[in-house]
Structures
1.
Amino acid sequence: MTTSKTSSHLHKSLRVPQGVAAVRRLFRSSEAALVGLAIVLGIAAGVLTFILNRGAHGLQSLIYGLSGSSLSAASSVRPVSLLALPVGGLLLGVGSRAAARRWRTPVDVVEANALHGGVIPLRDTILVCAQTLLSNGVGASVGLEAAYAQAGGGLSSVVGQWLRLRRADMRILLGAGAGAALGAAFSAPLTGAFYAFEIVIGAYTPAAIAPVAAAALSAVLTARLLGLEPYLIALPGAQAITTEDFLIYAALGVVCSLIAIGIMRAVTFIEENVRALPLLDAWRPAVGGLLLIPLALVTPQTLSAGHGALHLDLGVEVALRFILLVFVVKILASAVSLGFGFRGGLFFASLFIGSLVGQLFAGVVAHINGVPPIDPSDAALIGMAAMAVAIVGGPMTMSLLVLETTHDFALTSVAVTAGLCASTVVRETFGFSFSTWRMHTRGETIRSARDIGWARTLTVGKMMQPAANSASSDIAVSEFRRRFPLGSVPHVVLTENGDAYFGIVETSRAFEATVDPESPVGSLAEMRDVTLEPAENVRDAMKQFDSHGADFLAVVSKEGEVVGTLSERFVHRRYSDELEKAQREMFGE
């Protein structure tokens, strides 16, 4: 009697209040309600972007004594202030090591949408934002864009989890939050929306248009009301774009793609070799901070993401020799920062580096006979878009960023051309953006945020038929014929020493006239070394069937015991059904 009362009390305590249940049903059943939720989350993303932006700039001002100017645009910095780089690196390393001991590697927005159905734990969002804020705040050559996207997307994910939204809605809401935060950072709603479509969600679908657009607009308006200044680039003077310009800027896109691949490989090369050193993880960012000091003494433009430096180099005429110097040291600073463990991304660094490449490209073109000269400012903006496409991805995202920061439609059309050329070369020769490349080096195989998590959760253990028609491998063929008459079952699993797997035999083969009835049935066994494991996913299973030409396999545990069977026909049917379901959800059907 006591047990019954306790169970009843526990059931009541776990019961969801009717009001909460009604709210959850509303957001699961109404598209308009989901759009309204996206607007609220967009406002929250705008607030978070403002807080992160002001926090990082406040920390930089405190350390470097800035008076309203950007760190990368400073004419010089006090050498003693640069000690903040190794000190901040040490704090970051110790904190990251402590977090790694307790939790796994944090999930970012791209990985969450590709593998986890839009789910990001709250602690992962807090950790990524704190690490990026500290890294950028002490002056490491990384941007805040990773923190912006993580904050907006992470908050959306937490709310979506509480509301128990469907997988497709969770992915859309996560993309909307991440895109809204990034749009707020640049005061560019179209850029934020297409960042969500191309990079976070991985598709442009009718179901995602309204929530993503609404979130981006509300975030940008919120950030403007809070006082976050729009990121605008004033051009010296608009020049007519000719047919020759399209061809020249397409070549610039190819150049940017090759440099981008080199940068991504350089970051990985440094990271892998640093990890191979007998150096504690907690000390790696501190050592990286020490290496950044001489680069910062060459020019402060290597510090932070480079927002101020980009404006500075575009606003006045700068010698190409100095542009080349900044280009080299900025790449080194970014590679060292990320390779030694500072947290952040290459979003704005790629824009800055691309602008430098564009100006250098214009200088080279001016010395080539027969090629019409191009405007260095235009080339800088086209290079900015092309380099960002090559490293971050999203041709439309970066082209619209050019449009929203310059308000020049003619230049945007050229940016689309250069961006598509850069994207094509990178995809053909390298195959990854920076975010997916970093996950590839950790063993993941994703190439975009397209949802493949459902395929990983559809395992052999969930699809297999537990009961298997089995027989001992040492029985005679005549006994096998008696137990399994022709036409009764197509395949039989053979075992030895109890339940240990031996092989598979086709029932019809045992009835062939050339088979000796007194021989052991094990002599007819096939697929002796080919089995499936319960933990393998549906794609692994299909690869096994295809590579060995099998239509029926046994499922064997790690101990070697037969736990079930699976047919190729059933695997392909389940995969097709789940794929069709995922596509219906993606398009909101």
Note: The CA atoms of residues 49 and 185 lie 6 Å apart.
2.
Amino acid sequence: MKNLHVSHELMMRRWVMTEEFLIKIIGLIAGSSVLSVVIIILYLFNRPDKFEHWMRLFYQLIHHLSSNLPSVKKAIDRKLVAVSIQDTVNHICDQINEESPDILPHALKIEWIKSDTPDSFISKGRAVVRLKHYDNQDRNFVESTLLYLKHGFLPRTKNYLDKTLRQSSEYKVASRVFMARRDTGAYDYFFENEMMPAVKDDSRIQDDLQLLENLDGVGLFTRVFLSEVTVTGQKLLGTVPTDTVKRELRDFARFLETIATKAKYENVPLSFMGTKVKASVILVAKHETIDRHGIDPYTSRIQRLLREGYDSIYLAAWGVEFIKAVISIKGKIEHDMLTIIRRYDYPVYSTTKAILLVCQPKSSYLAQQKRLHDEVRQAFMDIVPEVKDGLVNIVCVSRVEKVGMKVAIKTVGPELGDPTRCCIGAGAQRIKQLKQRFPNEFIGLILWSDNLEEFVKGAISPLNPKYIDEIQIDDENLIVNVTVLSRESASKAIGKAGYNVRLASELTGYLINVKLPPSLAKAQSPEDELTEILKREIPEILNREIEVVRLARIKGVGSKVIVRWTVSDPVQKHRASEACYGYEHGNLQRIKEYLPGERIYFHDWYETPEDQISICLYPIKRHEIESVEVDDSSQLAVVTLNQGANKIVSSERDLNLALCEEVTGFKIEVIHL
């Protein structure tokens, strides 16, 4: 059975459509029986795909009846055009969301304005488009759809795509919308007035459109590529969309294109192991394998992929025999090895001709995040009746296990007022029960707001908004810069070990930077200068995936930086120091451009001081060290080098030791055997 999972945002968009339509329909049936009203309401609530369609028919009827009333007909005509566009766009968007949830989570709502300056924004769960009404209905259709996609398409994750691939993806979705209405000239207008001018300005768009067309031809555009973009965005929620991630997603699209366009017996790479995208495709397509060995080779390969750390596994087959094999594989791997996220059947003349299973290992990052968030949602449902009854809605959650959480909440109706009172309870009984459920974790209740600035103010609590001087929002790069009035305010907003601002970033989906006004900013120390450069040139440090544990710098000479991963990844392929150096030391070369003549060393963090000192003594190599003896009380470390150790020029040795001492916190004496 096709997976019919509908996200929370999709349910909310449908409820908003229900509210608006019921107001109109109840007025029409006011004279009917109560039973008729109930039947119609229940039918429409259970068939949300029909809301806009019935509204369209309603306005068509009124439009016809008002043919002799020009002024009324003109007003109704505008309503009819808006509802007709909404009907088409929202219907296609629902289809796309079934192929990959959360690609288009907001329904379209059109508002006609007199101004020549169009606008679009998210409000009350819908993507509102405001633009001028033209006599050319194809122009209305095209411009409103493209404005809608500007904010409604992958709202939190599209900025992780580079500019041309993102624009081409929007055009691909738009083409599907326009092709659904062959009774209009919308596609031709779009092709001539939007797509072709864009291709003329940038030929790369044409190449990307062809790439995405190749993916879509075999069902990989929405179900695999955009699905992986969404997954990557969820992993990176609250981080800067770096060029590294954008290049990786483009490489992944090309990887899928190789599979989509391969010849029948051609062998092509089926696994993609990037820094963030770790996906593999398994094609069940060889008769000899099934005939000789059954499904065992496929289950063995899945086990190997899990050991190698792949986050997504796509299991695909074409033809009755191979579809049966995939279903058998599903029965063997589900629950024990993988979680089946979605299943797609590809019907041809009502018969299934192909199948695609989207799977994730139970230990994947997203699976762990889902577990952490589900625990929070379940606890609130158990303890807060209003949440269970649907009167208080948990919009989103951010959580670091054994540290704390932030929960964004809002009321579904106005009758409850402040939802935080419901969650706290009389005498704070409910919040006490929640804290018992999550011992040693702080719980932050945040009022949800469609206004990002207001939402950010709440998200960085316990800082009082009155201590915020300015908020600057960079929608392109998903960054919010919050300038506060004092150092105490900055400390409160950032929180202990940076957890408060980290949780706020994850909750809002924007990287939140807390800054002091220029008048309070102190003169930059050499270490602060290096820290800023590291954040600028190493994406993993900027995105808080790698933590700088300690660093030491002698200006004009060099630096030593101790780093470690902040993410819990048992199959991490690279040490944190290797990631900081970058591929072929690319990061290091860029950093040196800021600090000419300085030597920079990255060292991995170790728990024991002996190991930490040994690694930080580089360029003295570990095999040259005979022993390291540490006296914690005096903070003295005696390092004995063996006879094979290279002799270092005295000045260089002294500077290296000085940096090593500063970064480790130990006085170091070196003895040669």
Note: Residues 378 and 388 are 9 Å apart (CA to CA).
3.
Amino acid sequence: MMIQKLTTLVSLLIFLTLPRMSWAITADDVTTLNYFVIYKYNEPDNGPNLGPILNALLNESIAEGLVVNNLVISEYGLLDPPNPWFYYVDHDGGSGVDFDITGQNNLGNGMYGYFSDPGQAYVLSDVTRYDEQRGKYIRTITRLFGSTWLSSLRLDLEPSTDEAPLDVTAVCNIDDPEFSPVSYEFDPGDESPVQTSTDGSFNYTYQIPGTYQAICRGYNDEGVNIASAPVTVTVLEQSEVPPVIDSFTAEPVDGYAPLSVTFTCNAHDPDGGDIESIEWYLGDSQWPELTTDNNFTFTHEYTEPGTYTAHCEVWDDDDQNAVSDDITITVHAPVVFHQLDVTVQPETGEAGLVTSNTQDISCPDDCTESYMDGTDVVLTAMPAAGYIFAGWDGDCAGCAGNRECTVTMTNDRHCQATFTPAPNEPPEITSFTVDPTSGELPLQVTVSCLAADQDGNVAAYTFNPGDGGTPLTSDDGAFSYTYAAAGSYQATCTAYDDDDASVTSAPVTVTVEEAGPVWSVIDGMEFSRSRTLMDRINHCFFVFLDITNNSGANLDGPVRMVLENATLDLKADGPGMDPDGITENGDPYFIIVPEGESLDNGQTLADRRLDFVLRRARLTFDLRFEQFGQ
């Protein structure tokens, strides 16, 4: 059998126009077969394995009583596929892709055959001639077998052609429901490092002109990868381009005459040149202002009310220019201002002060300010400790005893705020906690009671535990108390100020129960661990434990093992032991001896597996063993 690689398919395309002949074989015929195998592949480093296909063709030909005279392979790859592609044609002239000698599907994934039976191949030529030397007719049939290798990964890249620097957006799309990539690589083809992402989206800039073949590759969670067909990217030499205006701003764009406005026109030259000059068209003159030497800022004063349209025009050293968008500047006519005077009683300011929402009045230190006609100014009276606000007078008299008063500046205004000493008020409880509020005898609790006195100081606290015991007293509200009898008690806290006024908190219920069984640490339990191992199937680290009872006594369950100080978190849903709960300290624990079972002295629990998450850290941990009982 001779295998020859064709470099063109032109002759085959011509053969496709020849008429289809019958496959019938007669006893007098000496029939030979020329077989053409056409395949393509979209994996640049992993072309199809033609061995199974060729063996199948030979076996089927022998089964038909044929002699394979010539087997011709035509290969084409990624960059120049023939167009149109070949189609399957069966006995009666119908078409389809139903036959598959490789055992794979024809859904566009993997290598598949268009024909599985030589008798169903497409006839390119059927020639019968008389062989004088043999004394009989010899029939030579040339047939076409097609196969293909298709990738289910497609690379979409836009744009694929433009001047440098070329910014492209690349997206890897997968069409195979049975292959789920967890990561993607994008190779731009310009010898720069590949990029990686988890969603198949990439942004890349080609800096150097040239033609490149970009490829995307997808990896599933088992490390298997497939590659897309390459996409040709053409990066052209950069032509002479005008400057680019990055931004044109003005501050402020609205105000009263005379209005000083600072304009900023930021620009750059994409081809590396300099910005030679900027012309400023400011709307109040037909002639522009001019700045040079990369001076991107210009300040201009508008003296007359009106609406002006401004823009900038930038010129580079190649005499190329760019014009910005317009900015509208609104200049209002000057307005009338009125004066606001504020006074406080008493004038010393020790009783309180008055502030404004404009943050320019803080009386008695700063009590006078001028405002634009029609401005609303909100004054706020703020009494000092030990004083109350008694009310407003003057132009604010209508606000009475409200601490806030709004003054509309249509004329000069005067407002007075009066403060008077406040009567003594009892303190307020701000926080009262008992920790814990329930537990077994003897129950020791920590108490925190905090209060505030708006017109004085908190002088003392008392704690009444509610169980008939003597109340405790402190000056900071911190207490410690032990309940000695079971029951439910209403604990309270009372705060006293320096004028002996007091307030009592809402009660907190404390529930005390009789003592019950507890988890006790077992002395003498020993364990050994294996080295840290990796489970690639379940994606975790794990160790095996051998646990030995060397306590000197048989241990009745339940007995638990508590994991402490682990440098890696436990792996959920692994094949190892799952935690049976969490201790009060937040440590996971495992029941190694259930209730009703026992662990004899000297007995070992072998090969108990613990799973931990994969992370670049050394695995260390401690184990504590406890028995439940009185």
Note: The longest strand covers residues 136-150.
4.
Amino acid sequence: MPYEYDYDEERPDAQYIETCVAHLEDIWQETHRNWERVDLYYHREVALWSDDERDARGDMPEYHPARATATIDHAVDSQLAYEPRVERFPTSSTEKDKRDADHVEPFVQAVFQEAALLEPVLTWKQVGKHLLMYGYSVVEGPVLATGGRPDKPKRKRSESDEAFEHRMTLWQNAYKTWMPFRIRAPHPAHVLLEPTNKRPREGVKVVDRYAIDVERLSKERMKRKQKDAFVKEFEADDDPYRLVHCYEYWSYEWHALMADNDLIFVEPNTWGYLPFKHAFAGFGQLRTNSRSVEVKYLAVGLIDPIMDSLKLQAQALSGIHNTLIDASFPDRYVRGNAEDIRNQKARGARYIQLGPNDAVDFEAPPAITRWMFEAEKLVDFDIEYGTFSRNLAGLRQIGTYTVGQTAIQMNAAEKKFIATGQQMEHLATAVGQDILRCVELLDEPLTVRGHTIRPSDISHDYSLEVKFEIIDPVLELQRRQVLAGEVQSGLASRTKFWRETKEPNASEEKLNILYDELFRDPTIRQAFVQEMARKFGLIPLLEQAQKQRQEPSGLVSPNGEPLGPSGLTPSVPNPTLRSQPGAGAPPSDVGGY
């Protein structure tokens, strides 16, 4: 009887999850084998000589240059940004919607930054590395940390006041700074998704977990007693740290875990989204005669087309190195007792005693010709032409002497990574939208790095855009100076300046400028001083200082003007002297000094 399952209505069982895993593993099988080959090149472990070649030529030492590793790492470091910039679009032109949008932007950006610090590796750098290395990447997030906001601690029996106060202090910090979101970059071979859909409806994470962790997960689900859920108790037995092979199944409706081919729990996915997002780098292309999606032709990384060239280069450099070693330390041929000569050298003898019929000859060193180095240069050119210009790694091209020539080459090389950067932005945008979804479903304010957001700031609209931009500090400074000049001359508004310079919270900056303008008013400043003096009990001292400023000092200047308490004249010049026709300039400056 064929297996029947109602995808939209029924809770998935073990048989359905196993069927889904088998289907996805079959799709990705060849691609994963190719990634294993890529790993050998990146980690410099690929065999340069076959067994037949090694047997025919004897001992052949292998030298593995760092070209494959450097190709990936330089591209990631120089062409892909890791710090996201979030832009939220207001739902209308009202000031409230603009303020709400400006509240969302710094909060989501703070979540991205804080979540990256909670992972062993920088999340978005790892995403970019996977895209360039394997031609494919997966982001897991946002994943909510289990347990929710920390509960207020209860006092234990016989607990001292000091110990309880310490626990309360730690709880208050954890309660205020609770950040439930995690964003991870798992290895793309550990997550199985349908490759034809950018936002698939189901996926499986293949991971080995400790038995004690699986036991904790099952016990947590048993305590929840969630409606429509299935939970089976898992025991870690005698070895809590034995590895258990697990399948973690996700769909828009369900979340399940299988351990050692046994279904541990199935629960409703109340968040309504799949925590896995995936994308291809854009270097691959399907074959014309493909009737189904052959993923290995889409998941093409930066070094896939140059693997043969990388191997040829490593063989050439190994050959040159072996030739150098042979020339520096040639074999010796001895007529007579070679063991006696070796023992004399081992004792450190400066003079070796040979018999009357003994002789020592050296093997002629191998010839190192120029064409050997020229052959390696041809391979090096093929590697560079198949990846990107060495300018991006900070190296000057041969024949490049001017800034203009370098800029042209840099601009042409950077275009190769435009599609990869856009895919990273699409992944981050999807993660940011799901963060807003979670904030609204949690239905409580959250504060991350001093930025607070409330569900009312979202208004059921999860739209935003995340950008990864590589900013040249010199060009950015020039652009800001040009925009500032346009604002000063009235050709552009401050709003345009903030938009062009990517100000994350323009509404708050606008209020700060209004505050600054307000405090420039002398009446407002005086009122503020009066209020602060009243607050700190300094009114008598303020009144005394004001009285002293108003009283004359009793002194007069050479012009006959009364001096103030500081011994200086008022700032108004002598009107009589200034108004005399033809009097010219006074003999000295105002005040007679």
Note: Confidence is low (pLDDT under 50) at residues 567-593.
